[in-house]
Every structure is written in structure tokens, then in C-alpha cells.
Amino acid sequence: MPLSRRDLLIGSGAASVVAAGGELSLLAAPSSAARWTLPAKRPVKVIENQWIPMQDGVRLAARFWIPEGAEQVPVPVVLEYLPYRLWDDMRWRDDLTAAILAPYGIAFVRVDIRGSGNSEGVKRDEYSEPELNDGVQIIAWLARQPWSNGSVGMRGISWGGINTLQIAARAPAELKAIMPMGCVVNRFADDAHYQGGAYGEQNLAWGTSFKGVLAGPPDPQVVGEDRWEQLWRERLQVTPDIVKLWSEHQRYDAYWKRGSIAETYAAIKCPVYVVDGWGDPYSNIIGELLANLTVPRKGLIGPWGHIFPNVATPLGLEWQYEEVRWWQQWLMGVDTGIMQEPMLRVYLMYQADSQAFPEEIPGRWIAETVWPSPRIRSVNRYFDAGGKLSRKVGNPLPAKYVGDKVVGVTKPQWIYGRPTELEQSPDDKNSLTFDSEPLEEDLEILGYPSARIRVSADVPVAQCAVRLTEVTPEGKSWLVTYNLLNLTRRTSLDSASPLTPGEFYDVEIPLYYIAHRFSKGNRMRVAISAGLWPLIWPAPKTATLTFMLGQSHIVLPVRPKPATEAPFTIPVIHAGPTQNRNTLGLSQYDSDGRVSYQSHGLDHPQSSFVPAVGTTELDGGNRRYEIIEGQPTSCHMLLDHMNAWKRGAWDCTVQYGSEMTCTADEFHLREWVIAKKGDKEIFRRETPSVIKRDLL
């Protein structure tokens, strides 16, 4: 069964076990870093549950890890703030985070957002005003504690990285620095909702998973045997039809702009260290953050996915060496030398993740003193007749592409783990492709490749997808980067206008941020299609796209290889091959042209036991995506999921799901939440919705 964002963060505990036994290596450090050393470890006091009061009387549940002696000599504190259950689901990961901070003199606090886990109150949406206001209050409360030195940092990945940026934009005085990971600057375009102004599969999949987060029960061990069911019923009553809400906002409107850091870069006043992995689409925003923030800032991108560096496999980092150094610099006033090192460090990959899997991705760590880097130069490659990718502008000849085939089966998922794609040849065969000559020498890129295309369509609503791949002499095609644009959003994501059939438009499609080396003897390929399914919901009608060759081209951000690279100063973990491939699975083709993905996990849910609290958890789900080639309105997506928590007489189950079909003009959506206490159903809501398609 494929994983959601939340499941990925919960289910990667096995990776930490592998990493713990891995081989450690540390490259030589520059003199400024060599003067700093990791402090000696000290004992840590753990407070399993601490209530943090909010001004409206709601209490938020928290776990604390406080270094010994903090009552006598106060220490800084770092906050992570999530809706994912700290008492059971995320306990293992929170313990690992605490282990890289608290023994080295930095207190760590993990808080359940109101209406989730064991916190009181209710939650109705992601990154809501109550959530962000509470975050500001939590920071002030932590700064006042007798064991705190008054300086607070904030960190987190995914939800925790996103709300870290949003709370920093409110500039609480006590927040001195942040370390967001796997985060976004534009809630509409960067997060699990819409991609290039087109409806993303993740809007449905993540919305379904989020319903389970909203509807989960608190634990009677913490909130009390006499209160837990009342609190649970309150949550269930207000659990929103969240997929409907997100599906109604089909442009970058005020709903999405609230909380989008791209609207308020200048509001962030504290230092920022942003971190991610190339296997995570959220890494796309690191270049934007570094380019647009004006505060002290750093960025790092490694060869992993949507996961913390310290639990990444097979190539992770001994992250305490970097994170403790960062917090000492900004929360303790220690000149650690970290800000004298390059602004941006990334892992330059010599192969695609899917090509290297399950082994480490070959490559090397590189650095840029500033970003954008003045050393990066733009190199154009033009789409030419005969499927050639040429160095020179060619004759302006039209090339037609009929989008009646399913393209996307080799890139079926936006984010689930490592890798998120397969070998690309099956999709290349159904695309319009342009190949370079075999490279005479290695070519390295770092930044945002961009497709600049002159295109027309025969329908008013159409999509254009671009994939950049590397093709080996054996003919294997491996994905480097990609993106898609809903052509009705060609001028702006907050406005839309239909295409005039037959009229040519000049459009730009920025591809995902990437660092990659194309090897000597291989070819570069640009593959163009009229969609990516199931990643993106198809446009309402099959489109024939006409591209003007000779003028249409791709711009590559070429990085000249320096004589020497800045040393990489963080110890590296070599943990051996990745054990599991986290993919949506392989597509199935029926004789009637039907393409489908399906999984059946409800009949055999996964079971896990949390020994610290004595709870057994069950998790399972069914998923079916299908479409008939040449019939875009045949697209059908169904997700049905369940979570259960059992300990003695405490026995709770939540089943939740979403199903979507469409016509050319409407989305037809059905959402449901069902809750059981033991075998008794205590709550049920099923909501059908009809949503007008807004040039999607």
C-alpha cells in the first residue's frame, strides 16, 4: 500500500535502525569549523506529558527533553509542532530528534497542535489561524520557563517545516532561528494540492489522509478516562469535508495566499537554515528561499527523500554535528564558524535515484558561496526536426502531438519515498521526444532548468508536461527533473483564461530544482506530453498540441566544475542498500485500454505495537486509480483508509475516504468518515459534492 506524507514520516523508523549501524565518514573541515566541536553528552530529563495553556483556555499536550543542570544554568529550547500523535505514532521519531539535541545542551519540546493527538480543542484545516496563533504563544511560554535561557528555535519537516516558516513570518520576539525541512513557500503550487495550476492527485490523497489526522481520538492515559470520548466526539463533529474545500479553490487565491511565505518573505526576521532531499519535491523551494530572504540563511539538499537527514538511507548524515552547531550559533551566542561556510551545499547526483536504487546514488557534495550563484550559466538546447536537441536555433517548423495516450506511468507519484519514479522509456514512447548527440564530456547542472515553448492547442483547456531525462547507450531513460503547466494558467496561477484553438502562445515551464551530472557518452532527452497521469488529473478533452520547433527550447543551468570543491564538514553515514521501494506500484493495462493502479490493504492492515504506552495500532487502506486511454473524463480515483488504536478496553477505529469522478465541466466527489468504539459505530458522515471545473 502506498504511503501518505504522514505515513512516510511515521513508517521510516526502520531506516533509523539501519543508519545506526552504518559506516561513518567525515571529510576534512576548514579551519573555522575545526575550532568547533560537539559538546560532551549529559543526562536528559524526559517529561512525558506537560500541558501548555493557551489564552482561550485550551491546553496543548507536549513532551519535553531537558538537559540535566538546566535549572541551574538555563539552556535554549527547540520546538517541533505537529498534528501527528506524539504519544504513540511519532514517539520513536521524536525520541531520535531529542537524541541529537538534548544530550548536547539544547532542550527539545514536541507539541500536538490543538485538536490533534492529546491536545484539547478542534482542528478544521491545515495551517489555520488558531494553529499559528497558538504557535506564537507556545514560543513565548517556552521562553519564560525557569530552565530556558529565553532563546527559542523551531524546526520540523513537512507540516512542521511549513508551519515553522509561517510562524517565523509572525516574528515572535523569542524566536531566534529556525530550521525548516521539506517545506513550501506557495501553498497552492508547492504543496500537495495543485501542480502547475493543474489538479494534483495529492489533493485527493493527502486530503483523505488528513481526514484521518483530524478524526483520531485522544488517549485516555493522558486526557483521562472520563474525558477522552467527549473530546473525540467533538473532533468528529467538526471534521470538515476538506477535499471539497481544497477542490473549490482552483486558483492561487486569498485562501492559498494566507500563509504562503512567497507573499511575505520580508516578514521573516530570524536566521533560516532550510534542508531537504532531492527525492522530495519540496526541495524545489530551497533556491527560492535563499534568493528571496534577506536574513542570515543557509541551505542543504542531500540524496534522500521526504525524511530527516539523520534517518535517511542509504546515505544519511550524523546530523547532530550540524544542527547543534546551528543552534549554538543563534540561540547561545557561540561563534561556531557555521556562517563562514558556503550558503548552499547540495549533493550532485551522477545518476537518477531510480537508476541507482537500492544502492547509494553516486555523486559528490558541492557548494556555492551565495545563491543565486554568479557561476551558473544558462545554456540553450533547441527542439529541432527529426527529434533532435540542437545547440543552435533551427527553422521554425510545426510539430504536432496528439495526447490520446496515457503518459505518467513511470512517474506515478509526487511523494512517497525512494524512489518516486521508474525507468522512463514506456512514457517516452508516448511522448514527443528530442535527443542530444552523445555528450563529448560530462555536463553538470545546478538550479532550475526551464522549458520555453511556443505552443498551440485545438481545445480551450490543455496541459503541457516536460520531462528532462538522461539516456544511456543501451537506451534506458532516467528521470532528471520535470514539471507540468495547465496552459490556461500560462500568465499567472491566480488568474486563468481559455486557450484560443490554433493560436500560438509563448509559455515557460520551470522544472524542479536539481543538481545532476550528465555523463560523457550519454544523451540528454526532453520528453513532452499533454499530461502526467495519475500524478495530475487530466484536462477535460484530448488535446492535440502543436509546437514550433527551432524556437522552442530548454534552458539548462550549467555549473562549471571548479578546480576544488569546498570541503563537506558533516559526518556521512553509509548504511548499505535501501531495503524497500516505496512506490505506488506498477500500472495494469486491460484489453479495453483501461490503465489502473490498485492496492488492497484494508483486508490485511499493518499492525504495530508501541511498548512505551502499550498501544497496538492498525493501519490499512485500499486505493484504485483508473482511466481509459483517449477518454480523459473516465478518470476515477478511490481511496479508503482505516486507523485503529487498541489497549485493553480502549478500542477505537476511524475509517475515512474519498472518491472522485468527473465530467468535462464538473468534479463529482464523495467523502466519508466513520468512527467506531469497539464494534459500535458512534459517528458517520458521508458527503457528496459537485464542484465546477474552473478551466482545469
User: What's the architecture of the largest domain in CATH terms?
Assistant: 3-Layer(aba) Sandwich
Shape: globular
Percentage of residues in DSSP E strands: 35-45%
Instruction: Tell me the distance between the termini.
Output: 29 Å
How much helix, percentage-wise, in residues?
Answer: 10-25%
Polypeptide structure, described:
The chain is of the alpha+beta class and 696 residues long. It has three domains: 29-184 and 251-341, Rossmann fold; 198-249 and 590-696, no CATH class; 377-558, Galactose-binding domain-like (Jelly Rolls, Sandwich), CATH 2.60.120. It has 15 helices and 36 strands. The strands form seven sheets. It has a ten-stranded mixed beta sheet, sandwiched between helices. Strands 29, 30, 31, 32, 33, 34, 35 and 36 form an eight-stranded antiparallel beta sheet that branches. Strand 4, helix 4 (91-99) and strand 5 form a beta-alpha-beta unit. The radius of gyration is 25 Å and the shape is globular.
